[in-house]
Every structure is written in C-alpha cells, then in structure tokens.
C-alpha cells in the first residue's frame, strides 16, 4: 500500500492553515504547516516533502507576491524536482504566468474549491513519485548491478549445509556478513539470498568498497546535492536511496574508511542519513548484506574497524569455502560457464575433453570461481576445434599443482608479461590466504590498482 503524500503548507493566516490541514488530512496526507517563508525553507532543509503548497503574500500590507516568488525560488534551489503549488487571493494572469515561468507546478486562487485542491495535491504527489522512481532506476542501471539469478551451483558435501543455512535466513531481514577469499562467489551468494527474500521484487544494489577512490565513499553510499563539492554538478542519489525497499550488497566492507563507519552505523540503527552537502534527513528501508575477504576481528583489535558496526553487520555469518575445497563442483561450474559463454559468443563447441576436465580438477584455483569463469571464457575464444583441450585452458601452474598438471601449462619463460603479472598475483594471494589488502601491499600496488588487475585477470 502506497504511503500518504507528505505536504508542506505555508501561509501567514492561521485559519487558512487550519482549513488546509483538515482538508488534506482528510485525504490521508501528512501535513506540515508553517507561517513564514523562513519556516518553510527550514522545514524543507530538515525533512522531505512531495508537494509544497505556498501563499504568495505574507506581509498584510502588500499584494505584490514578491515574498512568495522569493520563497518559490528558495524551495527549488533546495529541491529542483519538488512540485510547488502557489496560491493567493490577489490572482492575476500575469502573476500566474510569472510563477509558472519560475518553476511553479500549478496555481490555485483563493478562495479555493476543495475538489481542486485535493486533485492538484494528489496529481502533483503522483508525478513527483514517478519522477523520483525514474531517477532511482536510472541510477540503478548506471551502477551496473548484476543479474538477479537464483542459481547457486553446488553439489559438494561441504556446500550443502551452507546452502541450507542461506535458505533458512534469506526470508528474514537479518543483516548478513559473507566471508571468503576473493572470487569464491560472495556476490552470487548475496544475490541468491536476495532472490529468496520477501524483497526479491525490489532493487538489489551493490557497491565494492575496495574499488572506490579515496574520499568518495560517503557520496557513493549516501548521495550528494548539487554544489556539495567541485564535481557535484547535479543532485545524485546514493546506493542507500537506490536500494530503498530492497537489498544493498556492500562488498569488501573492511575497506570502508573509519570516518564513514559511524555514519553507516547510524543508518543501520535508524534507517536515516543525509546526502553530502544537505541537512535534509532521508529515511530508507534497506537490508544489508556485506562481504569481506579480510579478518574484521583483527581489524577491530587494530582499531581499524568499529566493533559495534561489526556486530550490526554480522547478525548472520556466512563463510564460503575456496574452490579447492569443493572440487566436486568444478566440472558442474565449468559446464555452466561454458554454456553461458558459448551462447554469448555464438561458438560451436560441444564441450571439454576428459583430460581438460582433469586439468581443471587438479588446478589449485587461487582466484577461485571467478578465475574458473574467466578461464572457460578464454578457452571458448581461443579453442581451435569443436572441443576444449588442455592447451586451450591456458592454466598457469602454481606451487600446489601436481607435476602432471604443471606440465600441461606453460613455463614462466613462455609466458607473456600479462601472464607473469597474473601468476605473481595468484601466488601472492595464495600465500596471504586470499587477503586482498595484504596482497596489494606486498606487490606494491595501491588498493584501486590492485582491484583493477583482479577484474582484468578474472581473479
């Protein structure tokens, strides 16, 4: 059921305010009344409204409408999309035209007809909601959110209790923290949980905290208003607004700057926040699923992560094992990725030959499921026959790959510079147990540069 429109009414006459309050509340509206333009702007700076109904004259000895015109401009500076309906007992055609030219949505003459006031408010509130929804959908598409697939492919014994647990907790609104090495499928697990929840028809919005440049986390999470900083050329909704009613997946949550952790904690506790550069409070209903490959308990001990925030995020812990511990799933996943990439590239390949499947099973997969997907995609593009052979896989041997498997891959002397770089990242990731932050430090890479390489290499 759609909630009632929120309406701000500004007029200097108490009887007018009372009459409009009674009229609009009778239609189910939430009504805030103020006596002066200053009070109107203050109310708008603190709360969100869907319609503003304002008088044009506030000084009883003037009929110029100047105060109302100034208020109209002030309102539209705070919220350019807010429909403003102006009203006055001293209406003229010229004044009405001037109001509309300056951005008013409609014009009502006093004394008003109740039916016209009710219809105008309802129509303007509906238009405002439709426009806001369209804006959020545009932002949602811009964020390139992944598909809402219900598939979580697994048949190994180690995965069965994990899937059973996810099936149990998915229908709740409990916050979930997913842990595991890079590439184990934390994002897929988050989408799987969302698809089984009561929010499945609402947005699933994701954000990778590890891939954000320094200083933009607050704007990405909470949005900003025009002029909040140098590049803020227009109002923009943040991920929390985009996910309202649905699920927000925060990947690599351990990289959230300490100064933003308090703000996130507040949203988790109250559902309230402000866009950067605004004092207006926005309230949302969002379920949080977060993920990390780092040890947050260690980060808490080191003073890098708030303990109270960890408790809020970690209501239900879900740990995904690395692919090397679920070898029974490798062929299942490989065939799934093969089918998808054959369809994408239109290739006529019948499948993997048996030695290729054996090579996949014997490989250590430091990049886990993501690396397997990347490997199958590459083999589809490079295969010269109607079946994928071991040489098409291009597997790079690691220290834990057996001799037979190692012999199937190229030696380091035969690798390209890009392959050597990938190999070094894989080895360092394995040595650090999948810890991305430590791996980036060991390799002398910035966090953003390291994540770009992970994406490029499919790790």
Characterise the protein shown here:
By secondary structure, the chain is of the alpha/beta class. Helices cover 46% and strands 13% of the residues. The protein has helices at residues 14-25, 37-46, 66-78, 93-101, 114-142, 160-169, 186-195, 217-222, 239-242, 258-270, 296-301, 307-313, 330-345, 354-362, 368-382, 390-393, 403-408, 417-431, 436-443, 447-457, and strands at residues 6-10, 30-34, 51-55, 84-88, 106-109, 176-179, 204-208, 247-251, 272-274, 281-283, 287-292, 316-319, 351-352, 387-388. The strands form 4 sheets. A 5-stranded parallel sheet has the order 2-1-3-4-5, with helices on both faces. A 5-stranded parallel sheet has the order 7-8-11-6-12. It is elongated, with a radius of gyration of 28 Å.
Radius of gyration of CA atoms, rounded to a whole number: 28 Å
Structural class call reads alpha/beta
Please tally the β strands and state the result: 14
Which stretches are poorly predicted, pLDDT < 50 over at least 5 residues?
143-149, 399-410
Strand content: 5-15%
Shape: elongated
| Proportion of residues in helical segments | 40-55%
Distance between the termini: 44 Å
Number of helices: 20
Main beta-sheet strand count, sense and barrel state: 5 strands, parallel
Q: Write out the strand line-up for the largest beta sheet, numbering strands in chain order.
A: 2-1-3-4-5
Mean pLDDT: 84
Quick summary of this structure?
The chain is α/β, with parallel strands linked by helices.
Provide tags for this entry:
459 residues; alpha/beta; five-stranded parallel beta sheet; 14 strands; 46% helix; elongated
């Amino acid at each position: 059921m759609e909630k009632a429109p929120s309406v701000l009414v500004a007029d200097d006459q108490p009887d007018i305010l009372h009459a409009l309050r009674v009229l609009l509340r009778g239609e189910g509206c939430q009504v805030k009344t103020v006596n002066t333009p200053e009070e109107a702007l203050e109310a708008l700076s603190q709360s969100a409204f869907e319609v503003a109904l304002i008088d044009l004259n506030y000084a009883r000895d003037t009929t110029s409408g100047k105060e109302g015109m100034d208020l109209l401009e002030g309102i539209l500076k705070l919220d350019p999309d807010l429909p403003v309906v102006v009203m006055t007992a001293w209406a003229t055609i010229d004044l009405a035209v001037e109001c509309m030219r300056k951005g008013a949505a409609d014009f009502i003459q006093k004394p008003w007809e109740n039916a016209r006031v009710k219809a105008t408010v309802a129509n303007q509130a509906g238009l405002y909601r439709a426009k806001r929804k369209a804006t959020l959908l545009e932002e949602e598409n811009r964020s390139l959110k992944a598909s809402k697939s219900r598939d979580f492919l697994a048949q190994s014994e180690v995965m069965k209790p994990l899937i059973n647990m996810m099936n149990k907790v998915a229908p709740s609104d409990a916050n979930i923290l997913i842990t595991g090495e890079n590439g184990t499928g934390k994002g897929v697990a988050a989408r799987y949980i969302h698809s089984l929840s009561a929010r499945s028809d609402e947005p699933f919005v994701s954000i990778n905290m590890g891939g954000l440049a320094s200083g933009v986390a607050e704007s990405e999470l909470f949005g900003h208003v025009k002029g909040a900083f140098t590049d803020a050329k227009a109002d923009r909704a943040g991920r929390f607004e985009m996910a309202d009613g649905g699920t927000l997946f925060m990947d690599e949550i351990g990289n959230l700057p300490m100064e933003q952790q308090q703000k996130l904690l507040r949203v988790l506790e109250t559902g309230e926040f402000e866009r950067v550069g605004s004092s207006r409070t926005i309230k949302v209903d969002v379920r949080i699923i977060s993920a990390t490959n780092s040890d947050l308990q260690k980060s808490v001990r080191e003073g890098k992560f708030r303990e109270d925030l960890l408790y809020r995020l970690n209501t239900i812990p879900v740990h995904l094992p690395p692919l090397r511990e679920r070898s029974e799933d490798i062929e299942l996943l490989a065939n799934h990725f093969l089918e998808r990439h054959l369809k994408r590239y239109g290739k006529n390949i019948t499948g993997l030959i048996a030695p290729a499947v054996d090579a996949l099973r014997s490989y250590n997969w430091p990049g886990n499921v993501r690396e397997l997907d990347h490997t199958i995609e590459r083999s589809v593009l490079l295969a010269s026959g109607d079946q994928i052979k071991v040489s098409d896989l291009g597997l790079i041997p690691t220290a834990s790959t057996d001799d037979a498997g190692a012999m199937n891959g190229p030696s380091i002397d035969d690798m390209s510079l890009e392959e050597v770089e990938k190999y070094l990242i894989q080895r360092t990731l394995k040595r650090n147990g999948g810890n991305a932050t430590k791996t980036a430090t060991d390799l002398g890479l910035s966090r953003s540069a390291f994540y770009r390489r992970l994406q490029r290499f499919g790790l």
